[in-house]
């Protein structure tokens, strides 16, 4: 039934549309407050998932007390609701009004890459509100694409993608029929920019990295594309400053000149370290509800067989 339309999926879609309608009626701050309250309540209903989050946070931050671990977890769940509210509100706003709520620092770096047709990869993940950054970049006139995982519910997936690209843009899927590498490569060869979420659990990846102290399957696609096409990677971190979302485009990172499995792995490690640094600084802003370590046991076996790759 995955990616197939069904009555149950349609009812979920109706629920999403109803939520969108409610959020759009509310003022911005009120919508965010309702979003935070809704997912904080859901955390107490979805007990197994919340307990797994507590365990993951405790393992990542052994120095923190149980109360600190709980605070990080519940703030992360509240953040999920705020992300939804912000995304729905922002996608209904004019370009000028979006700029009142979302600031992009370093946008000139992306504009220069687009102007010079050098292309580039935006290194981002499920941190604070990645969707708001995508909307803001399109408002600034950048013709970007994103590589995303398709949602199982096709109705919800279509609606999410419509809102994501409401000001322009393109979406390539990493978990559908075609190999996403070639679609992304063609896009980059045109001198365009593409955003890739770096923190997905990757079902088919053969590359494992220690992420927050535990083995996780990681996607090499950013490193592969950057090395093959010799395009820069722009790390982007999103934070909140009161009622504003601040998206910071950091200085570009250039891939190794020589393409080799070892260089690919080292470049993946470098990008993973950058992202992990953001999480360690503001752990409550990361989407802990996403199970990043589904293949942990497989990763442990892989590292046991490849001790030379124990780069932490």
How many alpha or pi helices? 12
Helix content: 40-55%
Strand content: 15-25%
The biggest sheet amounts to:
7 strands, mixed
Characterise the protein shown here.
The chain has 312 residues and is an alpha/beta fold. It is built from twelve helices and nine strands. It has helices at 7-25, 28-45, 47-60, 66-91, 95-101, 107-115, 130-139, 154-164, 180-189, 221-229, 261-281, 296-305, and strands spanning 102-105, 120-124, 144-148, 170-173, 193-197, 207-211, 214-218, 233-241, 244-249. The chain starts with 6 loop residues before the first helix and ends in a 7-residue tail after the last helix. The model has no long low-confidence stretch (mean pLDDT 91).
Keywords:
single chain; 312 residues; alpha/beta; 7-stranded mixed β-sheet; 12 helices; 53% helix
Chart the SSEs and their pairings.
Elements: H1 7-25, H2 28-45, H3 47-60, H4 66-91, H5 95-101, E1 102-105, H6 107-115, E2 120-124, H7 130-139, E3 144-148, H8 154-164, E4 170-173, H9 180-189, E5 193-197, E6 207-211, E7 214-218, H10 221-229, E8 233-241, E9 244-249, H11 261-281, H12 296-305
Parallel strand pairs: 1-9, 2-5, 2-8, 3-4, 3-5
Antiparallel strand pairs: 6-7, 8-9
Helix pairs in contact: 1-2, 1-8, 2-4, 3-4, 10-11
């Amino acid at each position: 039934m995955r990616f197939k339309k069904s009555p149950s999926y349609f009812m979920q879609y109706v629920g999403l549309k109803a939520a969108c309608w409610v959020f759009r009626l509310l003022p911005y701050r009120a919508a965010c407050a309702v979003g935070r309250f809704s997912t904080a309540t859901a955390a107490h209903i979805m007990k197994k998932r919340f307990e797994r989050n507590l365990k993951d946070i405790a393992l990542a931050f052994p120095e923190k007390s149980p109360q600190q671990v709980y605070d990080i977890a519940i703030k992360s769940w509240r953040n999920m609701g705020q992300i939804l509210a912000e995304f729905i509100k922002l996608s209904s706003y004019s370009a000028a009004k979006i700029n009142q709520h979302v600031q992009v620092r370093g946008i000139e770096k992306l504009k220069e890459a687009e102007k010079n047709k050098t292309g580039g990869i935006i290194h981002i993940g499920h941190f604070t509100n990645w969707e708001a950054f995508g909307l803001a970049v399109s408002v600034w006139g950048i013709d970007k694409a994103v590589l995303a995982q398709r949602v199982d519910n096709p109705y919800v997936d279509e609606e999410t993608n419509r809102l994501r690209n409401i000001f322009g843009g393109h979406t390539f899927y990493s978990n559908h029929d075609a190999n996403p590498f070639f679609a992304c490569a063609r896009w980059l060869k045109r001198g365009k920019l593409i955003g890739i979420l770096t923190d997905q659990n990757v079902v088919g990846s053969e590359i494992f990295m220690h992420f927050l102290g535990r083995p996780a399957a990681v996607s090499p696609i950013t490193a592969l594309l950057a090395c093959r096409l010799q395009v820069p990677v722009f790390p982007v971190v999103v934070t909140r400053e009161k009622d504003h979302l601040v998206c910071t485009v950091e200085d570009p990172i250039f891939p190794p000149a020589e393409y080799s499995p070892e260089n690919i792995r080292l470049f993946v490690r470098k990008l993973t370290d950058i992202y992990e640094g953001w999480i360690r600084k503001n752990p409550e802003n990361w989407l802990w509800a996403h199970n990043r370590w589904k293949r942990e046991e497989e990763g442990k076996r892989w590292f046991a067989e490849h001790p030379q790759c124990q780069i932490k």
